[in-house]
Amino acid sequence: MSYAQDAEKTIRPLAAARTTTAARTTARAGAAGLALALAAGITASPALATARPGPEPRTVAPPTTAGALDRYYHQPLDWGTCMSSPQDETGRDLDRAGVQCADVTVPLDYTAPGGRTLTVAISRLKATDTRRRIGAILLNNGGPGGPAVDSPPIVRTAMKEVGPRYDIVGFDPRFVGRSTPLDCGWPVSFTWFSAGASRAGFDRQVALSKSLADKCRATNASVLPHISTRNTARDMDVIRGALGERKISYLGYSYGTYLGTVYTQMFPGRYDRMVLDGAVGPDDYHPRLLKHTVRENEQALSAWAAWAAARHTTYGLGRSRTAVLSTIDHVMAKAARAPLTLGTGPDAFRVDDTHIPTLLFMGVADDGDGSRDLLAQQVAAMSGASKGREAPLPPGFAETLRLLFSGAGSAFGSSQTAIICGDVPAPRETERYWRDIQRSRGAHPLFGPLTENIGPCAFWDAPREASTRISHDAPVLLVAATGDPRTTYRSTTALHSRLPGSRLLTLENANRHALYGEYGNACVDTEVNRYLATGRLPKRDETCVK
């Protein structure tokens, strides 16, 4: 789950070695993940709303390539420039890297393939070691809602010696990025917020969630039923066919691991080597997917607090872990009484106790010194604001707040939410969320009201299909950090137990979401590349150390 993976990425922070193209991708998709965000402008406390029921989910039989779908599976691809306009810097970077782009046509509704069609944008960095070419590998960066068209050059670098043996193919899933778009015109970019300390804060979140769902239904009712992971998996198989591949390999991060798992179940004979990094178990993937991450995020925050305490002379947040966490408690208490003003002039933002847990949650997704420094600067700014001090915001913080407090990322938030809501139904009784929040406060006062909070899926129409069940074993390589604060290690091991033919590559002592090619651990990168080169899984589960 880019999820929160991923806002999007502060969402999934990437290795510093990534190119500027990748940095733009991260900011836009934000990745890892679940993507998180915060919003402003919802200040009323209306009565709680009740979501209207939708149709019961049904199972749609996976289509075959016969008959009406042949034209999709066997379509010719018009490869060319990746630049969509003279101002498209990402496309220019891809062109310079030797990447070519194309659009794949897919049906909106796979049960009516003669009807409306969509385009799915793909990119390809062709194999240069053609004598030893292995095949094509498809990429997904998570989100959900994260694009990957601009990822092939980055992944080629991560793959080292094995990279030239693959056609590396990125794609933006349906209604994401350069594919046929979805934008509900939201006033906010993302939908993951805390309920804060009071019932009034929760009531505002209910009102916001209902308004977002209503806006999507009003603007995009004709396509929402067809936005789902199962349809994205069907699109992946069309891409495989259009590429002329009998089987396709796959690298997926975060939510991309769920997508990869779904593909193995829907098309069990059509994949080759599959790497699922930061894997989420199917039982943990649902609209309340943050619900099972509280412990890991508290641990990650505590580890960050110890790091910040050792640098008290730099940040002034406290000389011990306890003192730093007390600073956060003070900030939360002040923000619960009245919003804090962060920044000055045009870069001034008012944040309250529904926003601060989101910012902290986003900040602990990576335990690298660079990410920890950014979070420490942000907390220092919030601490200063809680004491009435006015000061310019640290570099990048204003941009993050500007994005999260506006609808600049509405397209990302719309597509991410539509995918999650279109996969698994959410509880629809608003009081259930409030009871869960109240129960969580004692043990988890900071993150409980965030991870238990309501979202737009509570007011969404029910999914068109039932979610995917694991009925086939899949010999995949799972990669996970023991302290992953997004898709937890417990979730990955649960998926591992459901897929007995899989192997688990564990990185110990790391609080990090997404590892391969991004975290800089030579052991992890070497083991993954060995598998991609040979197609042979390790004989047993393996462990690397940070």
Overall 3D form? globular
**What is the residue-averaged pLDDT?**
89
- Proportion in β-strands: 5-15%
How many DSSP E strands?
13
Structural class: alpha/beta
* Fraction of residues in H or I helices: 25-40%
Quaternary status: single chain
Structure annotation, total helices: 18
Low-confidence stretches: 1-63
What radius of gyration results from the CA coordinates?
22 Å
For the largest beta-sheet, the strand count, sense and barrel status come to: 9 strands, mixed
Termini separation comes to 23 Å
Strand order of the biggest β-sheet: 3-4-6-5-7-8-11-12-13
Give a structural overview.
The protein is an alpha/beta fold. The chain has helices at residues 20-29, 70-73, 89-96, 152-159, 199-220, 229-242, 255-266, 294-309, 312-315, 321-337, 356-363, 369-386, 397-404, 410-423, 430-441, 448-451, 489-498, 522-534; strands at 3-5, 33-34, 100-107, 117-125, 135-140, 166-171, 248-253, 271-277, 340-342, 349-351, 477-481, 503-508, 542-545. The strands form 3 sheets. The chain has a 9-stranded mixed β-sheet, sandwiched between helices. The protein has a two-stranded antiparallel sheet with strand order 1-2. It has a two-stranded antiparallel ribbon with strand order 9-10. It is globular.
